[in-house]
Amino acid sequence: MVAAASLFRGNVLVKGVGFVHSYIDSLTIGANVGGLQWVDMLVQLFFFLVLLALLKKFAWGPLMNIMEKREKYVADEIEEAERSRAEAEKASKEAADQLNQVRAEAQKMIEDAKSAGTSQQEQIIAAAKKEAERIKEAAQADIQNEKERAIQALQDKVASLSVLIASKVIEKELSEQDQEKLINEYIKEVGEER
Amino acid sequence: MDHESPIVHDIFGIPGADLNLSNLLMTFIVSLIVFVFCVWGSRKLQMKPKGMQNFMEWAVEFVRGIIKDNMDWKTGRLFLPLGLTLIFYILVSNLIGVATAGVVGHTLWWKSPTADAVLTLTLSTTIILLTHYYGIKIQGTKAYLKTYVTPVWFMFPFKIVEEFTNTLTLGLRLFGNIYAGEILLGLLVGLATTSATGFFLSALPMLAWQGFSVFIGGIQSYVFVMLTMVYMSHKVNTEH
């Protein structure tokens, strides 16, 4: 190696090739090329297979497991989300339908109430008119009664007056002229009283 | 600078049973790092991910993307743990040699395990054998055998050759990339340690090459998993 180094110092480009040659020859890695070292092979194979088995059990198995689990989980989640979205859509549609229905019902109720109110109003007015009519008729009947009673009373009074007049005429024994005058006066009196 | 591999010859008295202790050490360390990191990253898992869980899930999604590009997810999910383990294992293997190389005495202990052709070829062979295994398991023997003579019967030899070339290219591509990276890093380190001038000369290329090696390490781990899934899909896809 010392010789190689001195060569190297002398002429790098030309002598470098010789240096490489001598160096490769001296390398043990070079000595390994060729030759069937079957024990090495078995040892290597053994280590590799053991490694494979151990890693399969402790690393790749769990890793693949969890990755597949996650894949499944994600797929499930997506499915779930889609389903719940469809459900939500359906529910909102139902709610809208119900709202419309309720609105229509409310409208109908208002209209019913309005028409009921109108008819009640008419009824009340009709009843009031009827009542007024009845009261009016009753009042008229009363007036008639009163009138008749008054006429009756007047007639009674006229009769008693006539008797009174007659008795006074008789008491005084007046002349025919005076009689007539008297009667007229009384009648006049009666007429004025009335 | 004369590095050697810490090789133990004839273990248990079996002739030819040589073990590179560095490979043993590094594969063990890499496995340990990957295991601790991944288990630490995927502890306390929650439906709403936080911190490390995000990263781990990103990694899972990434590998899942690779698999989905190549085959039906129904059959593909079977290979997700394999792909994930592969990508982490190779990435850590590639990167572990970029930042550091450990030499004790004259022995190279600490390096990228993927800078050793033996280990990358082991991985690729395992993968190809697995594709055959799952091909038979999923398609049935008859359909599996039929893939060798489709679309026409004389494709048979090519199909056979293809299996071997697939194995070789899959392993050697990874090895070549990482090995080349380590060699250049080794050269630059060697240059840097020779003299003060060498140190300054090598500083900038070293920085650039380390950055590039990190990039290469990431790309190669991706390519390895990608090709694994491509080969797998050739065997298990019933439509193709």
Automatic annotation (TrEMBL), chain B:
Pfam families tied to this protein: ATP-synt_A
The entry's keywords: ATP synthesis, Cell membrane, CF(0), Hydrogen ion transport, Ion transport, Membrane, Transmembrane, Transmembrane helix, Transport
Membrane topology: Multi-pass membrane protein
Primary subcellular site in the record, as a coarse category: membrane
Localization in the cell: Cell membrane; Membrane
Transmembrane segments: 24-42, 78-105, 117-136, 183-201, 207-232
InterPro entries (alphabetical): ATP_syn_F0_a_bact/chloroplast, ATP_synth_F0_asu, ATP_synth_F0_asu_AS, F0_ATP_A_sf
CDD domains for this protein: ATP-synt_Fo_a_6
Source organism superkingdom: Bacteria
UniProt family annotation: Belongs to the ATPase A chain family.
Role of this protein: Key component of the proton channel; it plays a direct role in the translocation of protons across the membrane.
Protein name: ATP synthase subunit a
